[in-house]
């Protein structure tokens, strides 16, 4: 059967690719200028302004792996004096590693893993930070980026990862931390950067980044991208996407600056259905912690268990208007207004282990479907700067936020059994039912055929769940300098979060509804001791709160909003409380080798209380408790003028302390948390052999990972090796070769709780040609 047309219109990227190709051929390409321009003539001392974010000290080397300060004014001190674990992945690391999306980029940060999505839990980026699901904790320029999606990085300057509870900075959620994407914005000066990447598995990627200064105070920037590829080691899987991101800036270098930014991304993929978990002989009942199921494809790891009916289409649009004004030399006010939409439309065939499949050599093809639309409007006003009280300097940031989020989720009807068959087809899958006997819904474990003539029917299911939320928030942060050696970092945030949902039938009849209103205060407090100007030792405490309805149905959480039904059976306001997370951390940070190399180390303990526990099909209670504790080490920057390193290690000891009173949940007490490897490490390094030649490589290790808290599904540990070489043909043209997964290791980078795990790409070679003017 031909691929089912999606309801979400996605236009072809071919014209975009052609335009980029013409631009490159004409030689109108150039390297993006990352050096900080002076946009604030009143900055004192050595401070300069870079896109409205103060940077202390000399302008940073654009090619360095070291970053001195986070982009958000909510971080009121340089990173070396910030009492929490913050890792910034700079543009040069993204370029050198050949990262093509957010998941590629986050591979360089230990302590982050990714979980798989399916039907109820949506497809898209699902990062786990320090063992806690962070699917709803991604931000764009400091504003929450709501809606499940697979994020591109063609218009991203760098990525900031804050570990540990972070609700004071970003609001609800962020139990394990948050991820902030810093976008490429218009700046003073002219630059043009174009490139194309051709690689194995029919990879073709074209990018263009041009900045043009219109006047002394105005500039525009345009980023374009087109990408097509298959996936090494996987049958049938392919990715096809394109994007455009224009940016305008006015008033650069003046007291008042205005930024207008827009981001558009469309995708059209054949999604990966994953590899099913093995069920040991005897069936699923024998799954145990000591004998967990692992993914198994019957001998051929390239097997694809989907069908030609499968598709996944997506579209993201984000428009931002920001205005910033210097009230004085030491005080700035900024207002950010953003409206964004995120849409997904897919049918994904999942290898389902609930039909008695893998232990007898057959696999049931289960259809997971979703049509979701999420719309977000945010207005955020910030006031930041510094002032003195009784001779003590305060670097502060305060603000207010209002956000309206609306999500609509529906699905497809996939009739998998269109002709009369025995009842065994719907209850079991065995070798006798492979192929036509089951309408091709049962396939071979060792030799599935995605081109099977499946003759089922597909139609839209307009039964829908609508979710809406409103956030009102007030926050303040301050770094108080008691002396040259002692700093106090403080932050406090108040949130009022209202959310509600309704479900409707195809005919529009309301079948259920629920609502919740949560008010919570979160904070952070840290003491920093500086034995030297270039180093610090700190102790900190931070909290987060995750209210019911946190992800608007765009994550695994679902909608635990129902309270006591009224006489008509309608669900009233929820009596659930927010989950609360607290973090204790002790660490040290040092900038060494003339401030070229940053080293960090920390010990942490994160505890979640009031965790929601499902006690039956419709009821939840605040009864759970989990804990993750461990250590982290990192290094970033230049060891010598020619040798750079970006490395880290994380050890995480996780445990479900209390699963509640339900026997099935209590049985998991003492188990490890899913997607929480005990050990993970990354090392990426480059060396400039000659002025024209740079070589580099990396190794990435992730320990065994459980897919569920019962510890009955697991993916094995792995080590992946990458290599790169870059050569400058001239000052305007360079070549770069990346070979990812050098040893062609078969490993799994996304574990789902049941059914399947996603296999990572095999050996992939990418050759890039870049033009700089």
Short structural description:
This protein has 773 residues and is mainly beta. The chain is 5% helix and 52% strand.
CATH A-level architecture: Beta Barrel
Helix content: under 10%
Q: Count the beta strands.
A: 38
Distance between the termini: 49 Å
Radius of gyration: 26 Å
The residue-averaged pLDDT reads 86
Largest sheet: 22 strands, antiparallel, barrel
Q: Please report the first level of CATH classification, the CATH class.
A: Mainly Beta
Q: From the structure provided, what is the oligomeric state, counting identical versus distinct chains? A: single chain
- Count up the domains: 1
Notes on the structure:
By secondary structure, this protein is mainly beta. The protein has a single domain (14-772), classed as TonB-dependent receptor, beta-barrel domain (Maltoporin, Chain A, Beta Barrel). It is built from 6 helices and 38 strands. The strands form 5 sheets. It has a 22-stranded antiparallel beta barrel. A 6-stranded mixed β-sheet has the order 6-5-4-36-37-16, with no helix packed on it. A 5-stranded mixed β-sheet has the order 3-9-10-7-8. A hairpin with a 2-residue loop joins strand 1 (48-50) and strand 2. The longest helix has 12 residues, at 14-25. The two termini are 49 Å apart. Mean pLDDT is 86; it is low at 1-59.
Main attributes of the structure:
mainly beta, 773 residues, single chain, Maltoporin, Chain A, 38 strands, disordered N terminus
Give the secondary structure arrangement, pairings included.
Layout (H helix, E strand, L loop, with lengths): L13 H12 L22 E3 L2 E3 L30 E4 L1 H7 L4 H5 L5 E4 L11 E3 L2 E2 L4 E3 L2 E2 L11 E8 L3 H4 L6 E7 L7 E9 L3 E11 L5 E12 L7 E13 L5 E14 L5 E2 L34 E18 L2 E22 L9 E28 L2 E24 L8 H4 L14 E3 L12 E25 L4 E19 L5 E23 L2 E12 L32 E14 L4 E18 L5 E19 L4 E16 L4 H4 L12 E10 L4 E10 L2 E2 L7 E2 L2 E11 L4 E8 L7 E4 L4 E4 L4 E9 L1
Parallel strand pairs: 4-36, 7-10
Antiparallel strand pairs: 1-2, 3-9, 4-5, 5-6, 7-8, 9-10, 11-12, 11-38, 12-13, 13-14, 14-15, 15-17, 16-37, 17-18, 18-19, 19-20, 19-21, 20-22, 22-23, 23-24, 24-25, 25-26, 26-27, 27-28, 28-29, 29-30, 30-31, 31-34, 32-33, 34-35, 35-38, 36-37
